[in-house]
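Human: I hope this is not a bother. Would you mind checking the protein record under this note? Thank you for your patience.
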Amino acid sequence: MQAQLALTRQNLAQREELFRSGRPYPDLNGKVAIVVDDGLATGATMLAALHAVRRQGAARVVCAVPVAPPDTLSEVARHA
């Protein structure tokens, strides 16, 4: 379990470096944040992203997805 957790953290750090290239996080304080995904299954990743941008001070959080199961969409809509 610990080995898998360490591997996951390493993978996330590599992805962050790949996509952010050392750039700082944008200042979301008081702004509208639009979180986009290509589709939802369980919605767990989207919920984590929505909570993350809220913690960064976004005044409004919008979720944009083309497809999602109705029950998942209902759950996610309560957070966006």
Remarks:
- Helices lie at 2-20, 44-55, 70-77.
- The radius of gyration is 14 Å.
